[in-house]
Fold this protein.
Amino acid sequence: MEYEKLKEVLQKFGLSHNETKAYLTLLRIGGSMAGKIAKEGQMDRASCYDALKKLLKKGLIVYALEANRKMFKAVSPNRLIEILKEKEDEVQEVLPQLLSMFKEEKGRYGVTLYKGYKGMKSVFEDILKESKGKENLVIDSSGSFEKKMPYYFPHFVKGLEKNKIKIRHIVRGENLNASKTTETRYIPKALKESVVATNIYGDKVAILLWTEVPEAIIIENKAAAEAYRDYFEILWNSAKK
């Protein structure tokens, strides 16, 4: 894995820019004093000392005294997994209370907005969760999902099959990769290709916009979902197999 990718992952994990540089430097050069770590990591001494203090608190490094000077050393990277487990345990402890608060809020807002690829992933995860053993109706997408999210798309398809979610998909004359649970019908290619896709599942309608920075809107409203279903059935019955 490239060095920049390692830095990105560690910063997503929760380490600051300087903590990441100091930690990776120690992994690379082994036990060293702060001055050498700062030099090898291309950091000023003050920033390096501050980063080392924080890494000590997180348990990612240790030190020993040699001639009254601190010799720092990285612990096994397995400690990162232990930290995640500790965080998970802390969340599990307060989860019942958080869920209780969430239930109180549920239903107050009928429209939720999502932006970016992480937001789109949240929408697809919601579809997998809410549609188990049921049906998801899809109007178009022109293959945008698979093209824009090639690494996540296979996971979603497996999720559809695992959760036995039946898909009825209306597309614009293009043979798309699909799950084993998908039935596809086609509308004429002559119709202009759209960046908008619609998913209808449960009491929800998800409108996906595959623009340069993708966006999505989930409408949670039973009447709206039923209206979209009626519209879908009209299209489905007029589309070609």
User: Anything to note?
Assistant: The radius of gyration is 25 Å. The first helix runs from residue 3 to 13. The longest strand covers residues 61-66. The chain has two domains: 3-75, 107-238.
